[in-house]
Write a structure and sequence with these properties.
By secondary structure, the protein is mainly β. Helices cover 11% and strands 41% of the residues. It contains two helices and six strands; from the N terminus they run βββββααβ. A hairpin with a 5-residue loop joins β3 and β4.
Length: 103
């Protein structure tokens, strides 16, 4: 699980996440966002990318390709609700079916 510091909307109305530093992430890589449901299953909710790796190592990640079935969760993210944020996992990879548009 990756530690969030802050979530907000960027100038293009995408979700911008500030993450703790990690060697697993690199500039401009695709990343995937998962929501862990109450039964413990991780559900792919969006694809994004690493926009900036700051001088202090913190990562700015943009969620820019949400899956419609999870729009309510994505809309709630920029409220910085700690209970919701702890259920979101960001992984430095994307699923093989990414280009099909199917989660």
């Amino acid at each position: 699980m990756h530690d969030y510091l802050r979530v907000q909307k960027d100038a293009n109305n995408n979700i911008l996440c500030l993450l703790e530093a990690s060697d697993l992430f690199a500039y401009d890589i695709y990343i995937s966002f998962y929501y862990t449901d109450d039964d413990g299953f991780e559900n792919l909710i969006a694809i994004g990318f690493v926009n900036v790796i700051q001088n202090d190592g913190k990562i700015q990640a943009i969620l820019n390709q949400p899956y419609p079935n999870y729009q309510n969760i994505i809309d709630d993210l920029d409220g910085n609700d700690p209970k919701l944020i702890e259920k979101i996992i960001i992984k430095p990879s994307i699923p093989r079916n990414f280009n099909t548009g199917q989660p």
